[in-house]
Amino acid sequence: MEAKKPKKKVILNTDYESPTDTDDDGPIEADHKDDKELPTCLMCVCLTGSVYCEEVSPDMTTVPPLPKETAYLYARFNKITKITNKDFGDTATLKRIDLSGNLISEIEDGAFSKLDQLEELTLAMNKLVKLPMLPAKLMSLNVNHNLLRTKGVKANIFKKLNKLAYLYLGDNGLEAIPPLPESLRVVHLHNNNITSLTDDTFCKGNNTHYIRYNMQEVRLDGNPITLAQHPNSFICLRALPFGHYK
């Protein structure tokens, strides 16, 4: 008499909608390596080290889980409203983040604290009223077109960033210029509500020999201030700021 063959389990393979079978000998071996990465890389374009999530449909309202070793994230023109401490907690390899054109109104204070390799952060065209702590190696920060006022920017938030070279704070509601690091090359402060300057804003009022060699461009146009009334504020700069002088 012919021996009966052991029954086989039938499992539906959802990718092809056709049955596949396995033996009862042990658990099915599956590659779980990309379990967490797959959903993001279906919505977005994932290339080596880079994730592109731009104008995602259906609407993306939170930062998606990122593949490990992601260095560059571009999640522009979505509906993200908040950045939490967990969003980038497992992606310490990030060097550039671009979240332009979202609806971000809140960033938890430690959201970028673990990103010790982050060099470029772009948060332009959002709804920010407050800036979080910034990573020490940051070289470029763009927060143009937000709702920032001076009370939402900590006094020494930029002063401690000794690698910061490009700072874009235009089209906000700032009433004063925060202390700026020596490393700055370009600072844009146009279209704010800045009404006054001091001799120490860019220069050192007690040192007439001081020259700010790194600074190449300052934009103050579109503010309710007449720059000609503050000549000592620019005496250390190699080029006069853009703005109203009459």
TrEMBL record:
Record PROSITE patterns: LRR (PS51450)
Compositionally biased region (Basic residues): 1-10
Chain segments carrying region Disordered: 1-32
TM region(s), chain numbering: none
InterPro entries: Leu-rich_rpt, Leu-rich_rpt_typical-subtyp, LRR_dom_sf, Mimecan/Epiphycan/Opticin
Protein keywords: Disulfide bond, Extracellular matrix, Glycoprotein, Growth factor, Leucine-rich repeat, Proteoglycan, Repeat, Secreted, Signal
Subcellular location: Secreted, Extracellular space, Extracellular matrix
Ranges of compositional bias, category Acidic residues: 18-28
Protein family: Belongs to the small leucine-rich proteoglycan (SLRP) family. SLRP class III subfamily.
Matches recorded under PANTHER family: EPIPHYCAN-RELATED, MIMECAN
Role played: Induces bone formation in conjunction with TGF-beta-1 or TGF-beta-2.
Record's protein name: Mimecan
Taxonomic path: Eukaryota, Metazoa, Chordata, Craniata, Vertebrata
